[in-house]
């Protein structure tokens, strides 16, 4: 039982706290606990099989135990689950046809980092009307990820904040940490505890040091403040995650997908005794922020792979059903064209097919240049 003295001190502290905090918080609404949402939208048996097998496959590619090329491809961001599923079905069919050479994972980005302001993604504003129905956004997003996995297509997403992975981590085959957050200690701690492979993008200036530091940090155990599935705070203990890689995405100083830049990156990784493989992002700084340049970048990567470059293990592409981008009209989301991005421009489906076919052909040519005893798709059940 508390003493009158303690009660008096508590009241005084509460009164002081009201004056010292919350002066800019206008509202605090309840958030659905991650465990409850996972119970409401559970993984099906087929979805779970896809997640577990694809994680093994991606890990094998990053470790060069599987000589296929990892291809992470999909919309810049997802705002329309119906169009996203149509894209997923097309990609699943294409991935099966090319499964001997490339390991396809669908890009399913539900949150968007903004340089200043703008739409923050399906989770934050699912109805595109600034209603910010985040609880609805979480449920819509989780159902979409489960549905994509259920057709046998694995998904990749960006780890933008440290809370949302509680809601989706069981659906993810590959995670990416963006250029703006690679240097963040919170994200390095997060990666140290997730159960899937992760790529760290180079800094916005194109520098590789922050990504290499992030890999080293994430491979180590950490202790940090976190949240449980029931929404309570807790102290998280992690064992570390060494299943990581650098993503070359270019920067303010120029692109870094050419052969010299790739070799320079690999040399830096070897000098530090780190995993000497890279994934190349064909968009962002490498495309000079013009989606139409992505096939050109992918072509340069394909040439390097075809000549025997074994340490390029993956490629990232921004692709949609239709090319380009669109703004949300004043009339609202109902006026949007289906299958067209509302964030960065994307290549269309026909161009996507051509790029993936070219990458698959490059892997075939690489095998003639430097045949290796690798884990075959049959050995890995060809999960992706």
TrEMBL record:
One of its GO terms (molecular function) is 3-deoxy-7-phosphoheptulonate synthase activity. It is an enzyme of class 2 (transferase). It comes from the Eukaryota. Residues 61-356 form the DAHP synthetase I/KDSA domain. It catalyses: D-erythrose 4-phosphate + phosphoenolpyruvate + H2O = 7-phospho-2-dehydro-3-deoxy-D-arabino-heptonate + phosphate. Pfam families: DAHP_synth_1. Pathway: Metabolic intermediate biosynthesis; chorismate biosynthesis; chorismate from D-erythrose 4-phosphate and phosphoenolpyruvate: step 1/7. GO terms for biological process: amino acid biosynthetic process; aromatic amino acid family biosynthetic process. Its EC number is 2.5.1.54. InterPro entries: Aldolase_TIM, DAHP1/KDSA, DAHP_synth_1. Belongs to the class-I DAHP synthase family. Stereospecific condensation of phosphoenolpyruvate (PEP) and D-erythrose-4-phosphate (E4P) giving rise to 3-deoxy-D-arabino-heptulosonate-7-phosphate (DAHP). This is Phospho-2-dehydro-3-deoxyheptonate aldolase. It comes from Pyrenophora tritici-repentis.
């Amino acid at each position: 039982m508390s003493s009158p003295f303690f009660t008096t001190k508590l009241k005084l502290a509460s009164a002081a706290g009201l004056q010292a905090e919350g002066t800019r918080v206008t509202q605090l609404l309840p958030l659905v606990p991650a465990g409850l949402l996972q119970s409401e939208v559970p993984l099906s048996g087929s979805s779970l099989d896809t997640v577990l097998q694809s994680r093994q496959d991606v890990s094998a590619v990053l470790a060069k135990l599987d000589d296929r090329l990892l291809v992470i491809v999909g919309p810049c961001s997802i705002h329309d689950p119906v169009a996203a599923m149509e894209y997923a079905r097309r990609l699943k069919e294409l991935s099966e046809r090319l499964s001997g050479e490339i390991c396809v994972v669908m890009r399913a980005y539900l949150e968007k980092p903004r340089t200043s302001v703008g739409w923050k993604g399906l989770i934050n504003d699912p109805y595109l009307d600034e209603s910010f129905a985040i609880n609805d956004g979480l449920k819509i997003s989780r159902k979409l990820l489960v549905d994509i996995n259920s057709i046998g297509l694995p998904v990749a997403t960006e780890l933008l904040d440290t809370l949302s992975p509680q809601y989706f981590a069981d659906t993810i085959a590959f995670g990416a940490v963006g250029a703006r957050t690679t240097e963040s200690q919170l994200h390095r701690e997060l990666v140290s505890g997730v159960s899937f492979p992760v790529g760290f993008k180079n800094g916005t200036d194109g520098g590789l040091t922050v990504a290499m530091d992030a890999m080293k940090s994430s491979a180590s155990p950490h202790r940090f403040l976190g949240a449980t599935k029931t929404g309570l705070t807790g102290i998280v203990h992690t064992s570390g995650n060494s299943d990581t890689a650098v993503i070359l995405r270019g920067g303010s100083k120029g692109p870094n997908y050419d052969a010299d830049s790739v070799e320079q990156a690999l040399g830096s990784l070897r000098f530090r005794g780190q995993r000497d493989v890279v994934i190349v992002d064909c968009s962002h700084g490498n495309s000079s922020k013009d989606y139409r340049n992505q096939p050109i970048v992918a072509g340069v990567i394909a040439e390097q792979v075809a000549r025997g470059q074994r340490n390029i293990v993956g490629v990232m592409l921004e692709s949609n059903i239709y090319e380009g981008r669109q703004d949300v009209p004043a009339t609202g989301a109902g006026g949007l064209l289906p299958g067209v991005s509302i964030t960065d421009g994307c290549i269309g489906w026909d161009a996507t097919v051509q790029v993936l076919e070219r990458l698959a052909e490059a892997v075939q040519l690489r095998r003639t240049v430097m045949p290796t005893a690798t884990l075959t798709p049959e050995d890995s059940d060809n999960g992706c």
